[in-house]
Amino acid sequence: KLDLRTTSEIGRFPGAAPPTRVELTIQNEGEKKREEGGCLWWLRKMCPCCCKHPNATSYDVTDKVEFTKLPTPAAIVDPPKPKPENGEAKETDGNDTYFKLCENMTLSLASNLIFTPLLLEGKLSVCSVDLLSSKAGQNRQEHHTDLYHGDELILRRGQTFQIEVELNRPFSTDTDKLYLELKTGSLPLVSKGTHVIIPLVKHLEDERWEAKIVEQNGNKIKLSINSPANAVIGLYELTVTTSSLKGDATTTYTSSKNIVMLFNPWCEEDSVFLDNEEERKEYVLNDTGRIYYGTEKQIGARTWNFGQFHEGILEACLFIMEKSEMPPSGRGDPVNVVRVISAMINAQDDYGVLVGNWSGDYSDGVSPTAWSSSVEILRKYHSTNGTPVSYGQCWVFSGITTTVLRCLGIPSRSVTNFQSAHDTDVSLTTDVYLNENLEPIDYLNRDSVWNFHVWNDCWMARPDLPPGNGGWQAVDATPQETSQGTFRCGPASVNAIRSGHVYLKHDTPFVFAEVNSDKIYWQRNLDGTFKQIYSEKKAVGHCISTKAVGSDKRADITSLYKHEEGTDSEEERIAVETASRYGSKPDVYSTPVAEDVSVEVKVDGEGPRVGADAQLKILVKNLSSQPRQATIHSQVAVMYYTGVLKGTIKKEQMPKTIDWVLTYQQYQSQLVDQAAFMLTLCGRVTETKQVLANQTTFRLRTPDITITPIGDAVVGKEMAAKITFTNPLPSTLKGVVFRVEGLGLQEGHEVVVGDVGAHSKVTLTEHFIPSQPGPRKLVASLDCEQLSQVHGVADIVVLEQ
């Protein structure tokens, strides 16, 4: 846990000689009260909260007093300062006042320490500060931070909050002065907004730091404090300084508890303001969600525990910001914060949270498909002082990014783009190179199309861009390409992406290519040069998906990223051509030719399942009134979900439309993560010389894990859940491990099962005690070498006891 407190000497006057200690016994009630003497009377007058009368409650009576032996004939007393348990008080100025008092003070130990009347009026000091930080209290309820674990004061900027200050005597506006200070970072500066001085005012005004007394009861005052909507977020240290209006002495009290300041989507003046309560509940307060994967024709979904309010997660998020070495003064701008977070979630060049691995070998870590929660990853990273966690792929990077941004108060969601292009040469096109026989040239095909890719949207204003570019911003923590020398991406305005305004920051060209680039086919000539033979305009950026607001349904947000594609979509073509002018191949588009023959691939139902034959239907259609002849070449290769091909497993020539089959025996030894394939079709129409080209990705569906709750779900009462899984393969699964977790139900843990025989059924029974009421999700995933993306979820409504 981060702690910005600084220690200092307590109760020392600068320049005073080293003290000698003398014990003074205070008489108990019923003994000779006159023997208390003037010293105790003076202490009670100066600081009644520390030296209360013996018959009063709530304060311990001090039984030892320090004396200071000064280099003068008379012995001078150094009165003790308040030492509250929850803070520090120190003298910051007052030598002149002290010695003036000493000159008029007559001290005689023999005559019971008689003081002159000059000390009757005590100096104002703070005894304690109550931050009113209870989860059930007004502050955290009004600031929508009551879901965070613990009893720290967690606030959102641009909104008032209250604290209580107990003084050693009643506060008087006529004679006393009080102000607060908040400091964040290792070198707080007023000019940078990291050292804030909060004055006491009669009336609060918006958009500034200030405090007002709203209630006074004896020695206690309640302050209402206002913060601006552009305040720096992070961890603050609080001090309270008191003095007289004459300014002759000040006393400073440092709170032992820190204050956490977050972004505020509920505040209209905050740049992350989101004007819809249901969307705020979804994109800020919902701690579970859905992440989509697969292909556009076979979309899969898995539940993800974001867990932004879980114990230790807020501390981990603040730790990430500290480790990024981002100047605290820049933490008030969500554009800066999001850009830094996108770099820090991956470990590629700054020892960030998660190590990416697409090799298929995860023996020294956890397989990316085994994770179903951000909690374990973030807590492990924090507890090891920033050692990157192994391993992750795009959906894990996105899930963690959603957790961190929601935790800090920035509305965020995980977004999946199907047929997602990876442009490696800033051409804003996806280039496919073929040889003289229309066969792919693998070593030249550096651009790839991932069958899916997951990134994030986050919501904020963009005052750094032309008007109209605020709202949803794309940010990607998966390390694909560097941006200004660091593996990060965004925030890129989704509106700018849609319009093709790729010259606007940050990383808009890369995201545009992911969702709206054209796929250009190039054929090698006999002299080794290449000519453009075909342009596929609807090849990438399909079914862009996120979880719907308020439900577990899938919401299609493709229209936010691109105009509708089609023959009549002039807006979409204008956006593509506008973007291409800023790419490395501005004159890429081919001359239109007669295109009256089409080829497409269809997948029936939910598609083929792993362990069975894969059957697809290839349709070649003649759209003209004249007969046409065409020869089509097909090639299928095992593909990582990133679009990288592992190897070709079947090639054939097809003179006509056929039902295409890939048997289990042909692919069983070649499967990789996601069980994905790419089918490439190329051909030419004899009469018109039209080139036919099509690349289709498909995956083999994996079985689900079934979770069945057993017993009543009540807080504090044990219940159970039965978890079942059936091996779909005609071969043994080796080293099967289940991972089970449920926020508010039980901590995440592993269950080692071992080998599971062909078509065998596994049943586990989990026993746990729910700790939080309300709707909860129990999530399980399976990890083994032969199968990936096997998971299940059960919805459980937990009742109060």
Automatic annotation (TrEMBL):
GO biological process assignments: keratinization; nervous system development
Disordered: annotated segments: 73-92
Entry GO terms, CC: membrane
Residues noted as binding Ca(2+) in the record, renumbered to the chain: 516, 518, 565, 572
Cofactor(s) essential for the protein: Ca(2+)
Active site: 394, 453, 476
Chain intervals with Basic and acidic residues compositional bias: 80-92
Superkingdom of the organism of origin: Eukaryota
Domain spans labelled Transglutaminase-like: 386-479
Membrane topology (UniProt): Lipid-anchor
Swiss-Prot/TrEMBL catalytic activity: L-glutaminyl-[protein] + L-lysyl-[protein] = [protein]-L-lysyl-N(6)-5-L-glutamyl-[protein] + NH4(+)
Molecular function terms, GO-annotated: metal ion binding; protein-glutamine gamma-glutamyltransferase activity
Cited PROSITE patterns: TRANSGLUTAMINASES (PS00547)
Enzyme Commission code: 2.3.2.13
InterPro entries in the record: Ig-like_fold, Ig_E-set, Papain-like_cys_pep_sf, Transglutaminase, Transglutaminase-like, Transglutaminase-like_sf, Transglutaminase_animal, Transglutaminase_AS
Predominant subcellular localization, coarse grouping: membrane
Cofactor binding summary note: Binds 1 Ca(2+) ion per subunit.
Protein function: Catalyzes the cross-linking of proteins and the conjugation of polyamines to proteins. Responsible for cross-linking epidermal proteins during formation of the stratum corneum. Involved in cell proliferation.
Family statement: Belongs to the transglutaminase superfamily. Transglutaminase family.
Annotated protein name in UniProt: Protein-glutamine gamma-glutamyltransferase K
Protein species of origin: Astatotilapia calliptera
